[in-house]
Amino acid sequence: MGCCNRRCGLIAGAVFGAAVAILGGVLIPLGNSVIQGTVEKEAVIEPGTTAYDNWVSTGGDVYRQFWFFDVKNPQEVLQHGANPVVLEKGPYTYRTRYLPKENVTHNANQTVSYLLPQGAIFEPSMSVGPEEDKVTCLNLAVAGAYSLVPKVLHPALERLIKSSNSSLFQYRTVKEMLWGYTDPMLKSLVGLFAPYNGTYDGYYTVFNGKEDISKVGIIDRWRGERNLRFWNDKYCDMINGTDASSFAPFVDKKKPLYFFSSDICRSVSASFEESMDLKGIEVYRYTLLPSTLASPTVNPDNKCFCRDPKTTKNCTLAGVLDISSCQDGRPIYISLPHFLHGSPYLREAILGLNPSEEHHHTFLDVEPTTGFTLQFAKRIQVNMMYGPSNVITVLKKVKDYTIFPLVWLNETAALDDETAEMFKRELISRIQMLEIIQQALLGTGVAIFVLCLIFYCVVRRRNNEAKLV
């Protein structure tokens, strides 16, 4: 009777262990389904969700750091045609993106529209000096007029340059160069980012993700249009992806992430590089590929971005993007800092450049479950073009078309400790707790089942041996 009770008890224990193991196994897909449903619900851009609260507000601090290229030999360039020698000077840091989205409108077609206010506040503690620091830099008015004014009118431009006592280079404060000054030749406001404060980026219209979570944050329209009007090409004028602040949840690292940047007037993609730990949170680091600004001879997709064969070496020049078509004709070229991934010609024409993959590449750190970008660094260099002239005195010694670096910026946001702890508490810890419960139930159930099965076999064997005796 006692042996029977032991065997029955062990069988019951094995059944119980199996049931516990099965429960743990069932909880894995069930738990994953619960997590997925919760994340997808909270990722929708509508009032009351976590995504909306973060999306409509300013979020974490975003800074723009500027490094200027200070010209050390302006007279040698003007008088003897020497290659410009530059020395990087910076950073001069400004806090940006501190204003919440405005004119937020929820549309009937599962989209939401908004304006993105622009502003910049100087941060002395994060800068090498005050905004009143001066740099010797390219004269924006002279370089701009050289490209915009037809050659037949260059004699008139020469008289205007001389009468205003202007030259190819000028000595200006950081504040003037960034945010504007009244140019003596043009008698109007000139600046790299003028006007900026009090202006807006947009109007943006993005999908809210309620109907299809895979489309959340994807830009449907920018400035009321589904396509750009800068490149005169269907492919190059496409608006792809989000604004890079977030992506659809459950990111697949095998697929690139697409985003649109109004700063460079085009869409780009970033590819997975590595998994990283960011304050205890696993993130996927995505970076721009060198092919993004490759010449059309290397990346044929870039053919429609080549605007002027004459200034781009018959479209063989790599590393620069002519965005004059979205800058009212101004000869602005965008590149990575110090012409990273650019043709050697660019660095040979300007001495003092030192491109570094570590310091000059663009990256996004994306939390894969939510698709939120928790940290990023967008690094862009602003350049202007000037060339030789037989008429304009300050350009007579120039030997070839030159794409001259003015400033490079690092727009960055880093995850602060408070937000990291909140993120881990609200999401990561809950997922980890569910996984622990799943594994504990599965492991305990299997252990009980195996032990009960072993003891059952031992008891049954001993019982059989006793009967034989």
TrEMBL record:
InterPro entries for this protein: CD36/SCARB1/SNMP1 (IPR005428), CD36_fam (IPR002159)
Catalytic reactions on record: tetradecanoate(out) = tetradecanoate(in); tetracosanoate(out) = tetracosanoate(in); butanoate(out) = butanoate(in); (9Z,12Z)-octadecadienoate(out) = (9Z,12Z)-octadecadienoate(in)
Pfam families reported for this sequence: CD36 (PF01130)
TM spans (from-to): 9-31, 440-459
Gene Ontology molecular functions: low-density lipoprotein particle binding; low-density lipoprotein particle receptor activity; scavenger receptor activity
Membrane topology type: Multi-pass membrane protein
Stretch forming the signal peptide: none
S-S pairs: 236-304, 265-326, 306-315
Keywords (A to Z) from UniProt: Cell adhesion, Cell membrane, Disulfide bond, Glycoprotein, Golgi apparatus, Isopeptide bond, Lipid transport, Lipoprotein, Membrane, Palmitate, Receptor, Transmembrane, Transmembrane helix, Transport, Ubl conjugation
CC terms in the record's Gene Ontology section: apical plasma membrane; caveola; cell surface; Golgi apparatus
GO annotation (BP), single: cell adhesion
PANTHER family (UniProt xref): PLATELET GLYCOPROTEIN 4, SCAVENGER RECEPTOR CLASS B TYPE-1 SR-B1
The name this protein goes by in its record: Platelet glycoprotein 4
Gene source species: Lates calcarifer
